[in-house]
Amino acid sequence: MKYKLSLEKRKKNGVLIEDNVPIRITVNHNGQRITLSTGYRTDVKAWDESGQMVKQGFYNKQKEPFNIINSTLSKQKSFLDNQAIRHQLDNTDIDLDNLKNEFAKEFSRKKHVIHKEEDKKLSFYELYDLFVQERGKQNDWLPPTYTKFKSLKKHLSEFDKKLHLDKLDEEKLSDLVDYLRTKANMKNTTIKKQLGFLKWFLKWAVEKKHTTNTDYQSFKPKLKTAENQVIYLSSAELDKVRNCNIADSKQYLDRVRDVFLFCCYTSLRYSDVYKLKRHDVKRGKLEIVTQKTTDKLSIKLNNKALALVDKYKGVHFKENKALPVITNQRMNDYLKELCELAKIDEPITVIDFVGNKRMEHTYPKYSLIGTHTGRRTFICNALINGMPPHAVMKITGHSDYKAMQPYVDVVSKEVDNMMDKFIDF
């Protein structure tokens, strides 16, 4: 006995139907054939023909997720396999009509509906995994984003292993904030980020009709935070990084420096420089669609940026990438090492809040440098050198002045400091 899962091929007005098509099982035995109904439908674009299952991340028109459908399909295949084995052991022939009746009894629509309703009651964490899987694929997440959601899941499960969407009211969310602050020892700024990720998941759960609970929308705890400090490299510090000598034993820092400087010259985020392809550089310009905001940007490259692209013109990178970009975490570590070597060691005091407790810590500047410092360095130096904010926003893809304001404030302080030096001029 042989069987195959496939989509029904039916035409309407001479055109093959591709939406909401029944999934069926064709069974062949001794020259006879029967067709079994699985009780499910899906779109042609969602069907994996070779794997005989629904592709990950897809829902059908009945709002049934791929994992629920595939789970039942797997049970149906196991049923057919077991029937074949039983007849083989009993040395009896398979009667396809009887098989069809037995299959119908086992997977009748009534029973199927009951199973479907039971299966639909996925746990909080099963839905969370489904969300990460679906949104990650749709939005082409980079590894750091997956890591952030993995970290949030760990904290949530340590807070309550039996979380339930319908019971996640404001009181429960307040308990979560208290846990993150007192047990996980999180700073207020970190808690805000964690809540942002959680609300993203909860919004998805409501949209997918897994819950009607929208209490999260009005949950806005008062978390005291200090004004964001913009860490960037001045023109003089940038020269230090450019000109510092790197030992032969640490040539990995040379490539890290090149990628970092390219970000400083172009304002690119790590996610964009990571995805940058050689063909994105056209006639002295970068033409890209940003990963984070899907903005279409055209950025004219200065001579230093063009020189960096040319430096790696003859070097082969996977996926035709333009520059030798390593993982975000490793690059962050190496940037600190590079900037320490370049003596970017001005003491910087960072203010944080844990609950209402103010915390002050002073660090050497190199320990605060990361991949995003490149983007901040471009913005601040562009403004200091007289580029109007609206022009900077066009290059960076910022959509409103609110996001640009912290940089404008930094530049205003920088100009005041410059004027202090000329007070008696």
Automatic annotation (TrEMBL):
Keyword check for DNA-binding: yes
Organism of derivation: Plebeiibacterium marinum
Family, as annotated: Belongs to the 'phage' integrase family.
Keywords carried by this UniProt record: DNA recombination, DNA-binding
A single GO BP: DNA recombination
Lineage: Bacteria, Pseudomonadati, Bacteroidota, Bacteroidia, Marinilabiliales
Keyword Repeat: no
InterPro entries per UniProt: Arm-DNA-bind_5, DNA_brk_join_enz, Integrase-like_cat_sf, Integrase_catalytic, Integrase_recombinase_N, SAM-like_dom, Tyrosine_recombinase_XerCD
Protein's recorded name: Site-specific integrase
Domain Tyr recombinase: 228-420
GO MF terms, alphabetically ordered: DNA binding
